[in-house]
Amino acid sequence: MTDTTPDQSPPDAGADAATEEAATADARAALGRLRTEVGKAVVGQDAIVTGLVIALLCRGHVLLEGVPGVAKTLLVRALAASLEVGTTRVQFTPDLMPGDVTGSLVYDARTAAFSFREGPLFTNLMLADEINRTPPKTQSALLEAMEERQVTVDGESRPLPDPFLVIATQNPVEYEGTYPLPEAQLDRFMLKLPVPLPGRDEETTVLRRHAAGFDPRDLAAAGVGAVAGVADLEQARAEVATVEIADDVVAYIVDICRATREAPSVSLGVSPRGATALMQASRAWAWMRGRAYVSPDDVKALAAWTLAHRMRIRAEAELEGVTATTVLTSVLSTVPVPR
């Protein structure tokens, strides 16, 4: 009699592990290509590109701050061109209304009814250029979208696409005609990346590229094309979610954030949302560096980007030259590091 009992032998664990390792390598390679592709258009901002990739991995929003002419807008445009995702750009101005961003109800004379016309928020990557040039009323139109990833108009909630990422820019040295972002708005940005001036060698390279015919308005001519897509992001995000973070490292993050609230020169410390952002960013950074666990050094490396913009310094301390960065540096040097 023939034995028809199904094979009960265990699956090949080695093959499964090899498949997972290959998927991880592919996802990491896709994001590596993304960083290289952006570098075709932008010189000397590798750290900022890394920050943008971390934000993509964590579904976090980014605030880019830098003086005019350091390629803030070009960075975002190059990132969008390197990804197979939808993208929009909104130039924030004093006369911009909330409905211009979120969308609004439009009357259709043919049907004698109102229909919803989607605003530029309904995309995967939205560039909010010079966000601090629009009044708080319009700035606050982004709050629900950034936190809940939906837009509510006339009592009806409409989900935004996934992935959804807001990258905003602002100029730190020009204050005339600007409106500082309120604390609630700043807290929605996972990372605030200060875009520095390039070094001498990088600036020389920029000029040589322009002399050779580089046109920042035509990225396709510069060879910038899509090298990663939504599937690559989803795979990478799944891998980041598996990165382990020990209890003592979690406690280390909490202690850092609590220390900012207790600093005498600080009127507003880091919120629990900020602590969560630091944990998520640290996991993404650890994964990008090829590790499956978060170390205290990862936390230190991402602390300034994730925490400094969430802190408010007392006026008397500001007069003495105290900044959020100096307070954070002091906190990181005094909070005990887990071993």
From TrEMBL:
Q: Name one GO molecular function term.
A: ATP binding
The record's region (Disordered) falls at: 1-21
Q: Which UniProt keywords apply?
A: ATP-binding, Nucleotide-binding
Entry's SMART domains?
Answer: AAA (SM00382)
- SUPFAM superfamilies from the entry? P-loop containing nucleoside triphosphate hydrolases (SSF52540)
Top-rank taxon, per record? Bacteria
- A Pfam family assignment: AAA_lid_2
CDD domains, per database record? AAA (cd00009)
Which residues belong to any copy of the AAA+ ATPase domain?
A: 58-199
Family in the record: Belongs to the MoxR family.
This one is known as MoxR-like ATPase
User: From which source organism is this entry?
Assistant: Demequina mangrovi
